[in-house]
Design brief:
alpha/beta, four-stranded mixed beta sheet, globular
Length: 299
């Protein structure tokens, strides 16, 4: 017997009942979204902010579970901190303008090297290890992301002018998990660095995704960027537009919120902004009534 009179067997029954209740709570969400496409943007900040490899493993497990219960997950990844680290290692100082990386020709080579040589294989390997057939692909492959210069001041930062999601649709039809590195190209073959938030929103729109999920290194959207207690659990696109207009959103959150609003207004059902450093945050957000981040709906 334990000090409070409860046996270890009693506690085991209670624990099992809690697990069962969680599964029952998840059931209607699984039934509702089975067969639906879910685009998950896994940010470089989420990867870099992880306390250990366990967080990446938890993310990979979440993707594998979504795949196993009938969802069609598509992972779109960034690699900002990893790119900055490599630039500094090579003696090049990262600079940003309105939340976007200034990308000259040398930086473009570093971006390609990090995204295609490090981050993409890392994610593909982790998801494969947990039983889902992940396949790495770039926005340059099969002309997925056709781009044009976003701003002369940014160099080879691209603005997506066209999305051809054929290759991703084919992968989904074959029950694979696409893992997309956010590079694009123009009609001449010039490579461009595409903001991963923008790319995720554009791809979600092209796929007619049910959900668009951003995983980053903050808990969600704040009505006051300096007040952690101002986290919005639910928001509408109108509220987010107002926050953008008021200056309450800055830095890297600007393209995230802009692409979130645009995707919902063009047909994506809902978007979520989550703290990717929390283990199994995807499951907590998608399969529980309370959720853990910010859910955005059309408004």
């Amino acid at each position: 017997m334990t000090k409070n009179g409860r046996t270890a067997i009693d506690q085991s029954v209670v624990d099992s009942a809690q697990v069962a209740n969680l599964l029952i709570e998840a059931l209607p969400y699984i039934q509702k979204f089975a067969g639906k496409t879910v685009v998950v943007k896994y940010g470089g900040n989420a990867i870099a902010g992880a306390n250990s490899d366990d967080t990446l493993a938890a993310f990979a497990q979440d993707i594998a579970l979504l795949h196993a219960v009938g969802f069609k997950p598509v992972v779109v990844h960034g690699g900002g901190p990893q790119i900055s680290t490599m630039m500094e290692r090579l003696g090049k100082k990262p600079t940003f303008h309105n939340g976007l990386r200034v990308t000259d020709a040398e930086t473009m080579e570093i971006v390609s090297m990090v995204l295609l040589g490090t981050v993409n294989p890392q994610l593909v390997s982790a998801i494969n290890q947990h039983g889902a057939p992940a396949v790495g692909v770039s926005g340059q492959d099969a002309n997925m992301f056709i781009a044009a210069p976003h701003d002369a001041a940014l160099g080879f930062v691209g603005e997506i002018t066209k999305v051809d999601a054929t290759i991703v649709k084919k992968m989904l039809a074959e029950s694979q998990v696409p893992v997309v590195a956010t590079l694009g190209t123009d009609s001449t073959g010039q490579a461009y660095n595409i903001n991963a938030d923008t790319a995720a929103g554009a791809l979600a729109e092209a796929l007619g995704a049910q959900k668009l999920i951003y995983m980053t290194d903050i808990a969600g959207v704040r009505s006051n960027k300096d007040d952690a207690n101002s986290l919005l659990r639910q928001a509408t696109t109108l509220q987010l537009r107002a926050l953008l207009g008021s200056g309450a959103v800055d830095g890297g959150m600007i393209p995230k919120i802009e692409s979130c609003v645009a995707a919902i207004e063009r047909g994506v059902y809902q978007a979520h902004i989550l703290d990717g450093r929390i283990a199994h945050v995807l499951l907590l957000e998608l399969f529980t009534d309370a959720g853990v981040g910010t859910m955005v709906s059309r408004g």
